[in-house]
Design brief:
127 residues, 9 strands, 5-stranded mixed beta sheet
Length: 127
């Protein structure tokens, strides 16, 4: 599938987009987290790799004006307005893009909440 953001186009296998609803105290992030492709375990693994990348190698992550929206095409084309965090699997690499309006603490909080949500989805997926 392809993702388009801030004038860039990337070919990816899995994409996870979050809007400001990720900061909600509600554990159900439907409407706040959008997952395209991959199983629960693959998404959790992707989120963990993205968090490590942001924590250890922040220079490898990108800042962009994501509030303009992220377009995801694949089986169904979508345009997500208000995106603040985008994580994607691209081959053996990981793409991390965050809205430049976020500060470091907010990005870490968003990753923590996203990881908890992905863990919850994975546990629900396993009998």
């Amino acid at each position: 599938m392809e993702i388009r953001f801030a004038g860039q186009l990337e070919e990816v296998e899995i994409a996870v987009c979050c809007n400001r609803g990720i900061f909600s105290d509600d554990p159900n992030k439907v409407g706040s987290v959008f997952i395209f492709g991959g199983s629960g375990r693959e998404v959790l693994s992707l989120v963990e790799r993205a968090l490590m990348l942001y924590s250890e190698y922040p220079e490898e992550c990108r800042e962009a004006e994501l509030e303009e929206g992220v377009e995801v095409s694949g089986d169904a084309a979508s345009r997500l307005e208000g995106t603040i965090l985008l994580v994607a699997k691209q081959g053996s690499g990981t793409v991390v893009v965050f809205d430049r309006a976020l500060d470091h603490a907010a990005i870490h909080e968003a990753f923590g909440r996203l990881k908890r949500y992905a863990t919850r989805l994975t546990r629900m997926d396993v009998p």
